[in-house]
């Protein structure tokens, strides 16, 4: 089975649906240089999960221009769910905020600007879903903060979990080993039960156990 064929076939099916696509979202932005966002398949999975779980509080680590943020906020809006998202690049953060306003989701999103390593240490509260999508070299370092901030039975979604087996461009090669270690760390973490889903570039879905 060819992974690219599988991915292309799945993407072609999503094109038939009337939803916000990554292409539409990014087409009229003035910022052209940004770290890639999730693809349409991952955005569809995040929306579906939000419809099922109905989280009141979602935390996203790594906003970029806000495609995943807006996708989640639109899904959470009908039941009053709010998204807090963290980004340290001022240029993309400004574009993301503009996109939140244009998409009518600004009142559901709080954008925290700064380094997530510092922000997470100071952040309090309890999140029903945490979407981890920052620099992959930070995933393991940030796991203790994610566990502290995750509600009992909450879900931690970690993007790009299949980096170790994808044919990545050279610029992403330094992210492969950190993802491999992080995947193994998640599997060893007693407070979490995890499954790696072949959605997008791989989505690790972890549930914080009731006892934790
Ligand atoms: C993969 S992108 C996020 C994509 C976004 N979640 C989406 O799918 O639309 C990762 C983002 O994390 C940001 N980032 C990287 N290191 C960071 C840090 N230490 N603190 C805050 N943001 C960081 C990058 O600037 C980049 O925009």
UniProtKB/TrEMBL annotation:
BP-aspect Gene Ontology terms: methylation
Keywords: Methyltransferase, S-adenosyl-L-methionine, Transferase
Cited Gene3D superfamilies: Vaccinia Virus protein VP39 (3.40.50.150)
TM spans (from-to): none
SUPFAM superfamilies: S-adenosyl-L-methionine-dependent methyltransferases (SSF53335)
CDD domains: AdoMet_MTases (cd02440)
GO molecular function: O-methyltransferase activity
Domain of life: Bacteria
PANTHER family, per database record: PUTATIVE (AFU_ORTHOLOGUE AFUA_6G01830)-RELATED
Name this polypeptide is given: O-methyltransferase
């Amino acid at each position: 089975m060819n992974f690219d064929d599988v991915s292309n076939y799945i993407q072609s099916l999503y094109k038939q649906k009337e939803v916000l696509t990554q292409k539409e979202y990014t087409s009229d932005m003035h910022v052209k240089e940004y770290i890639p966002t999730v693809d349409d398949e991952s955005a569809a999975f995040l929306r579906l999960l939000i419809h099922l779980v109905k989280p009141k509080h979602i935390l996203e680590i790594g906003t970029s221009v806000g495609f995943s943020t807006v996708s989640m906020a639109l899904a959470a809006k009908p039941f009053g769910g709010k998204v807090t998202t963290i980004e340290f690049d001022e240029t993309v953060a400004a574009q993301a905020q503009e996109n939140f306003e244009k998409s009518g989701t600004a009142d559901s999103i709080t954008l925290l600007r700064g380094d997530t390593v510092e922000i997470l240490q100071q952040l309090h509260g309890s999140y029903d879903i945490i979407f981890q999508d920052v620099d992959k070299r930070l995933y393991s370092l940030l796991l203790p903060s994610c566990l502290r901030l995750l509600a009992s039975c909450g879900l931690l979604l970690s993007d790009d979990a299949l980096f170790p087996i994808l044919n990545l461009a050279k610029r992403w090669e330094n992210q492969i080993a950190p993802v491999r270690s992080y995947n193994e760390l998640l599997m060893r973490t007693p407070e979490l039960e995890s499954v790696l889903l072949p959605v997008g570039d791989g989505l690790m879905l972890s549930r914080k156990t009731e006892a934790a």
